[in-house]
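Format notes (please read before filing issues)

Several people have asked whether sequences and structure tokens are stored in separate files. They are not. Every record keeps both together, in the order shown below: the sequence lines, then the token lines. Line labels are part of the format and must not be stripped during preprocessing.
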Amino acid sequence: MTLDFAIRLTEILLGLALLQQSLEHCRAPLREQLLFMPRALLCILLILGVQAWWVSLALVALGLLILRCFNGPYNGGSDRMSLLILCCLCLILFMPALKGQEVIFGYLALQLVLSYFISGLVKIMNPEWRNGRALQDVFSFSAYPASEALRAWAQRPRLLCVMSWGVMLFELLFPLTLLTQATLIAGLVIAAIFHFANACLFGLNRFFWIWLAAYPSILWLQHRIFAG
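Then the structure lines:
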């Protein structure tokens, strides 16, 4: 995967992810609409590749205004990842030197790897994740929309313990997927399925789209490192 193609793919995926986020506010109070409806228009321009330099800069400015409006990333990790990808993309587009572009894009890929590894490290240090109790609480008491049949999974502690260890081990071992292109693609497919399942089961749709937008960076980095 070439750098130019990976950057263009990131633009498209990021534009789609931010567009989806923005349309969630189409019926919000006027103050929110004045922030998110212009962002939706900018996202369309980014997807089409129209003046990507200035569009990305305008999106960063709007992103900072949105942070101020909500006193921080109100949607947690997905908002942080959104701003991280957006800032990296903006820097890349304004960076004249190829080496600088590669460093910034590589940094984004590294942050993606760390997002999984650190998440797994934090989980495995928590005894409630090691014994499956954390997942039991998720299914029993989660504020996210979930059916009664889904919440009944909380009564299956052995299954949830196995699921907990599956999640933790995958996240901790994720850096090893960089060893080959095949293992990386397999790892990203598994990760995408995990995010998609969370979107379907708990309504965490933002995580699926925005993490997907970071995947071109790691695919490029793996190719850059091992294929020269």
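For reference, the curators noted about this record: DSSP finds eleven helices and no strands in the chain. The radius of gyration is 19 Å.
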